[in-house]
Amino acid sequence: MDTNGKETRKPATRVVAAGRKPEWTGPAVNPPVWRASTYLYEDCAAQEAGRHVNADGVFHYGARGGPTQWALAEALTALEPGAAGTMLYPTGLAAPAIALLSVLKAGDEVLISDNSYDPTRSFALLGLKDYGIGARFFDPLDLAGFPGLIGERTRAVLLESPGSLTMEVCDVPALAAAAKPRGLCVLLDNTWAGPTGFQALSHGVDLSILALTKHVGGHSDLMLGSVTANAEYYPKLRKRSLMLGQQASPDDCALALRGLRTMDVRLRRSSASALRIAEWLRGRAEVAQVLFPMLPGAPGHELWKRDFTGGCGLLSFVLRGGAAEARDRLIDALRLFGIGYSWGGFESLVLGIHPERDRSAMPWPPADGDPADRHAVRLWIGLEDPDDLISDLDQAFAALKLA
Ligand SMILES: Cc1ncc(COP(=O)(O)O)c(C=O)c1O
Questions:
Q1: Residue 352 bridge partners (DSSP)
Q2: 169, 197, 254, 381: which could join 193 in a potential S-S bond, CB 3.0 to 4.6 Å?
Q3: Which of 98, 117, 120, 121 to mutate to test the pocket of ligand 1 (most atoms within 8 A of CB)?
Q4: What is the mean pLDDT of residues 32-40?
Q5: DSSP label at residue 168
């Protein structure tokens, strides 16, 4: 910290130091698991007084968490300059759902970037409707068109950058600058870069959403989500989250705190390997396009360079022509990449993706491309040696040719 209390330490230092208050860790290095539903008061007066204090750090009842949850929430708040607090959720999907329910009410409308994580889209479209809240999808790359979308009822905009599956980077500061004067709350799913790769609140975001299941967990063995908010929105977020009984298990929070300590080094390794693999993929005749904003020349790279301080090993690539069956043969031939949902773990994953199933404002394949180039693959690059991953991809492309 400098003399004004401004954070000057680098991300690798901050992920090690954050959320380790001695009263929560005791003599242990990392906060241990505090399992409790009931916390006991000394007497009736203390219990009565306790009812009126609703804050992390104050023992009340398990539903408001305990030291393990508070330590994780505090760590995530500390990693996000401008944040007033963080709420935790049992999955990454619960995080945007509850965040939206915190800032919207019946009669309101939210604008949602069309490349948002598909279950978030489904919740917005089908779930919010039941509460009398409207949702409209939009192309976040169309900056000029954005102000015209804001209507009488529009109260919030939900962004995701890079977007799910197709990895478009949007101009978050410009969209936030257009949204704020019109009274909109700006929410961002920041799972791809995380707080060490993109400082969401410093770029105009009010609520920064993370699926902790990915990079913070880091080992493919837990489900968890978080929302970190500025001072304007944290009280609303806290109120709605607790009202809806949202809390995370202390066991999962302890695992997340363990994962957090190595997150910076894992993300650096994973994104460096992904960059090598992205370059290699770009040289393949079978590949029409590599979608990875960290790759110079790839879509979104200039904005990534301007706004981000890091990234991760999640990328997609589009095959040149061919049929969906050929794409599936390529995937099935891979040996080191498991076929599975999610990302952010130590092991590499692959998935055939179908952006056309979840788009209404951003057509897939893109209108300005060759319509034959439509079958795409998503890779999560884990911590294996990138040479081995490239050899695996190489032999899988050979299988594609056999067809
Ligand atoms: C961008 C993004 N946000 C949120 C989620 C939801 O996280 P979870 O799987 O923990 O529910 C995911 C899951 O894949 C995701 O990719």
A1: 377
A2: 197
A3: 117
A4: 96
A5: P
* Cβ–ligand 1 contact at 252 (below 6 Å): no
Radius of gyration of the chain (CA): 22
Query: pTM for this structure?
Result: 0.97
Q: What distance separates the 2 farthest-apart alpha carbons in the chain?
A: 78
Residues 318-347, mean pLDDT to the nearest whole number: 96
Q: What is the DSSP string of 34-88?
A: ---SB---SSHHHHHHHTT--STTS--BGGG--HHHHHHHHHHHHTSTT--EEEE
φ/ψ region of 183 (left if φ > 0, alpha if ψ in -120 to 50, else beta) reads: left
Rounded mean pLDDT of 72-84?
A: 97
Burial class from Cβ neighbours inside 10 Å (0-12, 13-18, 19+) for residue 350 reads buried
Ligand 1 centroid distance, CA of 387 (Å)? 28
Which residue has its alpha carbon closest to ligand 1 atom 15?
A: 117
Atom of ligand 1 nearest to the CA of 192: 1
- Looking at residue 6, its pLDDT comes to 74
Ranking 5-9, 84-88, 147-151, 236-240 by mean pLDDT, the lowest is 5-9
pLDDT at 189: 98
Pick the atom of ligand 1 nearest to 214's CA.
Answer: 10
Q: Is residue 349 within 6 Å of ligand 1 at its C-beta? A: no
Residue 52: CB partners within 8 Å, gap ≥ 6? none
Rounded mean pLDDT of 205-226? Answer: 98
C-alpha of residue 362 to centroid of ligand 1, in Å: 20
- Tell me the C-alpha distance between 10 and 21, whole Å: 19
Q: How many CA atoms lie within 13 A of 300 on its CB side?
A: 24
